[in-house]
Amino acid sequence: MASNGTHLLSNQLYCAFTLPPISNTSWNNTSLGTNVSVNQLGVTAWIYCTSVLCVVGATLNLFVLILITKYSVLRTGVGHLIAHLLLCQMIMCAAIIPVSVHRITTVPKDLNLIYCRECKEKHPFQVIFTAIINWNEGILSLNRLLGGIAPIYYHNLNSRRMQYGSLLLPWSLVLLFAVPPAFDVWGVYLMSGIGACTLVPRHVVSVTLFVLNGYVSIVLTFVAAVGIIARFQFTAHHKKRTVEATNNAAALAPAVGPRVTPPFVASNWFSERQKRVSKMLVATSVSSICCQLPHYAFLLAGLAPKYSLTMGYLTALAYVHFTATPVRLPDV
Asked: In whole numbers, what is the pLDDT of the chain averaged over residues?
């Protein structure tokens, strides 16, 4: 009797609601009525890998965030956007992801895919901060693109008011996407057999918001990176032709007075910085696509509730991205 009572209380703790019938859509192509077979060894490996990424990611993001807070020179330009990005990633690595790991290590192992109070109460935070981080990176990339193609107006476009305004729209879209499903509106939060939570859209509004928050920010990062690299290539080619023309003119001119050195050496440092920024943008774009796109593609296909362990490893790729971001920021 005591064992049955404990089992009942455990189910009531994690599963406050039973799963109502879901309409016949592409989101319902999973076996919701059967237990999910999970490789326990794979779950254990995921827990250890994720824990290590959380510790490293939280430490790196906190360290760089402290540097930006301490030195005002680091807050010039896009410093406030970078600080916002680091803060969100630190919260993810230090609080939100560990809560998810703890849930998986303590959840009863005999659960079906059901509504879960634990998911409805806590998983929205993970959805919100993951999407906001992607939007923040997209805004940073767009900011650098505008600086390359419109340097005259960049000071006005890069004002603090514009930076805060550029974050307001993504926050609105993300909250509109993540909060209603917590009240069973437009979507549901499901728990898999291992305790992993997933947001499953059930309405066209939720699907549209999912695409906006999941893909637009990644595409924005990629397009901005390509645009800036193309701009750098054009600028480098133009400067090379200018230097060649200057050298030819200097060679043909009569030697009167001391010879003036062409401005090639003076532009060397700027060209090297352009190359570093270009490489950083390529790295950011590739990292976002490789680490974020599989995660969102798996969700969009409706496979996350059924293949929860695979989804866990795809989500861990995003944690790798969060950990690597502070390492690349000095090149911005």
From this structure: 73
DSSP state of 322: H
Q: From the CA atom positions of the chain, what is the Rg in Å?
A: 25
The whole-angstrom separation of Cα 321 and Cα 327 is 10
Question: What is the distance between the alpha carbons of residues 10 and 290, in angstroms, rounded to a whole number?
Answer: 38
* Nearest residue to 198 (alpha-carbon basis) of 108, 34, 308, 301: 308
Q: What is the per-residue pLDDT across 243-257, written as a single tens digit (0 to 9) for each?
A: 656 666 655 655 555
154 Cβ contact partners less than 8 Å away, ≥ 6 residues apart: 146, 147
Q: What's 290's domain CATH number?
A: 1.20.1070.10
What DSSP string runs through 170-188? HHHHHHHHHSGGGGTSSEE
d(CA 198, CA 331): 35
Element (H, E) at 114: strand 114-115
Task: Report, as an integer, the average pLDDT of 37-51.
Answer: 78
**What residues make up the domain containing 314?**
37-245+264-331
Q: Which residue is associated with the tokens 């794979």?
A: 42
Q: What is the pLDDT of residue 209?
A: 92
What strands, in cross-sheet order, belong to the sheet with 114-115?
Answer: 114-115, 187-191, 197-201
Number of domains in the chain: 1
